[in-house]
Amino acid sequence: MIEALQQFPALAVATALVFxxxxxxxxxxxxxxxxxxxxxxxEAQAAELRGDEAVAAPRYNLxxxxxxxxxxxxxxxxxxxxxxxxxxxxxGRCKACGxxxxxxxxLVELAAGLLAALAIWQFGxxxxxxxxxxxxxxxxxxxxxxxxxxxxxxxxTLPLLWLGLLFNLWGVFAPLSEAVIGxxxxxxxxxxxxxxxxxxxxxxxMGYGDFKLLAALGAWFGWTALPAIVLLASIVGSxxxxxxxxxxxxxxxxxxxxxxxxxxxxxxxxxxxxxxxAFIGLx
Length: 283
Known about the structure:
With 283 residues, the protein is mainly alpha-helical.
């Protein structure tokens, strides 16, 4: 199968597109449910510390219960779960009650499909292509989770870090030594900025999830990519933040998540890492 995909690049790209659409459907579940699962876990831990009696809760994870319409509770059938196509056939509305289905769901599926196809088009049906696909899926999920909840779950960022080091055991994206230094430097750089900002202002400027995400990106691309990633994320984040405050009446005291901009910069580093590091004089 791998040999066939390597011999026919167009087939490999098409396969990646379909696979990405399918995974995108699952990523919508992850984006919606994982924060709720984390919140339930925190509440259970708090209750245990208070000495409250444990209350049995309905089973809730990434697979149970089956997806339902949040408005009427209609359980989605197999034909209503076909990525992208179902939303188009249903004209963006629930089959049972007619409530509008947010366009974000098909957009996430489409983004996952296009990112997977782009990864295989760029790197081919190879270990680098597989790594690029997995990284893209993780960054896509983290982006929307952070937008929604201002959380970057450890259950995604930490495996992403170890996965980057695993790929770079063979130098797929960066030499192992640079990847290890990148993981350490990625975490410690934002950690230092966090504490400096907190000492000066008495406020928290970012969350620990941002440290872990940058550490993961350092593990994937090596320490030389970190300045470009931080610079790009900071510039885009600043522009978006100023625009939100100026035009969308976003209150200054309401924090703006930084994770999506780190994720976007990570994707740029995946495809343009060499030129970016050269641009800022590190290569």
